[in-house]
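lol so apparently i was supposed to do this last week
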Amino acid sequence: MTALRVLTGIKPSGTPHLGNYVGAIRPTVRASREPGIDSFLFLADYHALISTRDPARVQRSTLEIAATWIACGLDPERVTFYRQSDIPEIPELTWLLACVCGKGLLNRAHAYKAAVDKNTADGRDPDDGVTMGLFMYPVLMAADILMFNAHRVPVGRDQIQHIEMARDLGASFNHLYGEHFTLPEAVIDEQVATLPGLDGRKMSKSYDNVIPLFAPREQLRKLIMGIVTDSRAPGEPKDTDGSAVFQLYQAFATAQETAALARDFGAGIAWSEAKERLFERIDREIAPLRATYDALMAQPERVEAYLREGAAKARALATPFMARLRHAVGLRPLDTLPAPASASTVTGAPSAPPLFKQYRETDGRFYFKLTDAKGHVLLQSHGFASGREAGQAVARLKVHGWAACTDLHPQVTPHTDADTLEAALAALRKAD
Ligand code: TRP
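anyway here it is w/ tryptophan bound
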């Protein structure tokens, strides 16, 4: 059995904080170590260009985020860990997908719609400030996912629509060019831990209440001492419910440690002491990671080497797959064409025989259609339960012709007259 392929992109932006660590980095790293999982993780630096035009910042964030994930235990040997922009097949696939993507689909994308709505509300042109990068975001993301035929894509709720669009684009491509892509499924972790920040609200950059993951020890201590609490004095029992100090502790401590702190809350532990304990508990987990992070930041060439190895692993899959996709759409070497017939035989005759195409639809059923040399559909089947049944129907039509196979008529819809059909089937029989 092949391993379950799980793929996620990380946008390199901002400095990671404890909330990112507890909610995303730590669980993802753990999941990547589970047996039977083939994990793909990449830095979505092409995506970063949509929101950042500061080249130094793009570079710096890419280094910081890569070093963060490695420091937090991501094993680049075991996981395919790469930088999106090291895989030229991804933008190449983006174009192939763009060519099967209705513009209307992208008009409905949340991020684009939000920009348009805001412009409209502010009385500006609807597309004011909207780049094609923003508009095409879902297509690039679909290429990220389909390139590696990921089965599962763990993402936040805000990304579900993007995964659905990736499925849509993959299915359209498969329908037109044959079965090439696995259709991905979004995995939403319903119980993602959200961590309170310094002010008790959810830890988030937009609230300016974050504790940076790799703040130096003394700064970490200072920040923790500044967490908002109620004004109960030492000796007064304290509520664990709604206490940011307690919730943060819980995110790092074992069940026993947490129970012990709960007892001490009841017994009236001083806030300063509770915070001291929280600080030591967090630092115990983070300190070794911080040391690795600092070492990596001091040697960017090591991070670069990891990413290049990851890119080589990823391209070992992407390059041959892209070659197959290029062939599928007709981007082919010209010398593989059969020699053209001479002018006299061409007159009045189609240049290629009709063609049966068998394929599988997203409903899981098996279909075939017959097209003429110009690609017009002559006949279209309904869904068969198995590929074998569909194949047998095709074989019988070829051998016996349309009129003789009356039992197949309910399962096949002709799109042309009977004479044309019989002529096409006869031509196929001759060609076989
Ligand atoms: N759009 C994702 C985010 O903002 C990042 C991303 C880019 C991604 N490409 C992806 C996630 C492919 C999963 C799969 O978080």
